[in-house]
Amino acid sequence: MKKAQIAYICQNCEYRAPKWLGKCPQCESYNTFTEEIIQSKRYEVKPIIGAKPVLFSDIELKDETRIKTGIEEYDRAIGGGLVPGSVHLLGGDPGIGKSTLTLQIADQLSKNGHKILYVSAEESAAQLKIRSARLGISNKSSIYVICETQLDSIRSCVRDLEPDVVIIDSIQMIYKPEIPSAPGMITQVRECATFMTHDAKEMNTTFIIIGHITKEGTIAGPKTLEHLVDAVFYLEGDRYQSFRILRAIKNRYGPTSEIAVFEMTLKGLEEVKNPSELFLSENRDGRTGSVVTASLVGSRVLLSEIQSLTSPCHSGFPSRRVTGLDHQRIHQLIAVLDSKYGFPLSHNDVFVNVVGGIRIEEPSADLPAAIAIASSLKRKSVDASTCTIGEVGLSGEVRPVNQINLRINEAKKLGFKKIIVPKGNSKELSVINDIKVLAVSQLIDAIDLCNL
Ligand SMILES: Nc1ncnc2c1ncn2[C@@H]1O[C@H](COP(=O)(O)OP(=O)(O)OP(=O)(O)O)[C@@H](O)[C@H]1O
Ligand SMILES: [Mg+2]
Description:
3 domains; 11 helices; alpha/beta; binds adenosine-5'-triphosphate
């Protein structure tokens, strides 16, 4: 009898080794190798179009009307609704609210007359019912539930029921018995997801697949899964705080810059229509190292508070800790403040944080971050009704940002009285009442305007 071939596969990056390794030579992660039996034969999947090439002009466009879930925040974050036949991967830490969100989506979709199949591979029907009762899901809702882990019976159920949307909770529990590795192993996860992707395209059914996150913060099983599916979303948030952010990592049918903000309540995830109010802490008066900025997140402006703390360093190696902003840019700002304007930061530890777990990726947060560091170092606070925006260059110049009027309007809406903006944006400024707009060309001018 032919001996089964065994390989050791890194569960993080799929690197294959002939023997067990403690550290992966490819992704450098530790203890990620597991033994898997190599499958010589790949399962046959029915082709979608057929082997014959078709003329581009002959391809028929199926009905691509997006399915609106009715949860506005979610619809906006995914690009305007679910595209029929698309496959979404939803990742997130344990207990963050993945099942809650998908059950709420299922409920809304069923209210809009869509047929939903909820495949619960982790929880029993009774457990689901308890959650649905808590979320206020009607008994009359047309959500079909199966508690099944075998891929083939799930597939036959999908074929019989022909639902509009299938929710898989979660991919790590689904398995195909013919594949010799255990459920959750990379081979199982990849093969099962491949079948689901083919079914989605063939039947024009949308699949929302829940995936668990590894210790390293990526969806377990993974990178391959991210390539297979059409869109990848992460539900993030601090488990000790109530708000959750849905962020797109990849989206073939929409932008990846949008986010959706929810608040976890007893009745499930509730949409936060104006997240700026949530992320700005109250009583900022007299607080050193705290500056508010207006950044562009997708199509909307988000006001957030950047905090900094500087403290004398006694070790000779000053520490820099950054949360929510680009680490390299903060290093750059520290160098500008130190070498250009004489702020003694080479003898100070610097901590910078964006309040509320928000991540600001655009450079417009440079100016507020630099002012926050200067404010902490000088032990002087910035007026709480001031907002600042601007990119800072290596010579300390303040560079223009886009969508300046949108940002000023949002700051005004939230009661800010003064806003410091780049001089380069002066030409595009519209007349906006009730907020004083101060344009600066150098970082030091902004620091002076803040009376630091
Ligand atoms: N009775 C309750 N009241 C308020 N919040 C609750 C209640 N029960 C659960 N929650 C919230 O719901 C969260 C669990 O949600 P859910 O089961 O949807 O998470 P999940 O991401 O699917 O978890 P898992 O990875 O274990 O499947 C809890 O962490 C808690 O915040
Ligand atoms: Mg769950």
